[in-house]
Amino acid sequence: MKASEPLQWTARARREFNPAIGFALFALACLMIVGWVRLTSPAPAQTVITPTAKRVLDFIDQPDGSINVMDHDSGAVIERFSGEQGFLRGTLRALVRERKVHGLDLRQPQPFELIAHDGNRLTLRDPATGSTIALESFGPTNTAVFARLLD
């Protein structure tokens, strides 16, 4: 064994590339770039959507299976839905389920708010739970079922 052999072996080991070290350096660089971008980019602007119309409604189940929609303030019947009315019933069922989860008394009818926004957007909101359903996301035909209740 020559005196220069250990030095040659050490020099050769330094020149070999270890893929694990390369991957770790790449991952660290990515994390640093993402952190820098998150810290230096401005916060997203909060857009406030103002309602253009609002109506407080009571939905009352009738013994024959129909649903009476009444104006909460005047007590007048606005519309009577009979038959299947799948979208209307499904939407109301979802909000009533939230009331059950929150432990509210379902025997006392509580009103819902139908709110129109700019851009033909409609929202059905339950003031008792704070739950909101964006009706326009279900298409124009389903949105029209609730839109006619604003008139």
Task: Write a concise synopsis of the structure shown.
By secondary structure, the chain is an alpha+beta fold. 38% of the residues lie in helices and 23% in strands.
Characterize the overall form: elongated
Run of helices and strands = HHEEEHEEEH
What is the C-alpha radius of gyration, as a whole number of Å?
31 Å
Biggest sheet descriptor:
6 strands, antiparallel
DSSP summary: helix tally = 4
Strand coverage percent:
15-25%
Query: Share of helix among residues?
Result: 25-40%
Q: What is the topology, as strand order, of the major beta sheet?
A: 3-2-1-4-5-6
| Mean model confidence by pLDDT | 83
Query: Distance N terminus to C terminus?
Result: 100 Å
Number of strands: 6
Q: Flag low-confidence runs.
A: none
Class derived from helix and strand content: alpha+beta
Structure characterization notes:
There is one protein chain. A hairpin with a 3-residue loop joins strand 4 (112-117) and strand 5. The chain has helices at residues 5-15, 19-40, 86-101, 140-147, and strands at residues 51-61, 67-71, 77-81, 112-117, 121-125, 132-134. The radius of gyration is 31 Å and the shape is elongated. It has a six-stranded antiparallel β-sheet with strand order 3-2-1-4-5-6, covered by helices on one side. Helix content is 38%, strand content 23%. With 151 residues, it is of the alpha+beta class. It contains four helices and six strands; from the N terminus they run ααβββαβββα.
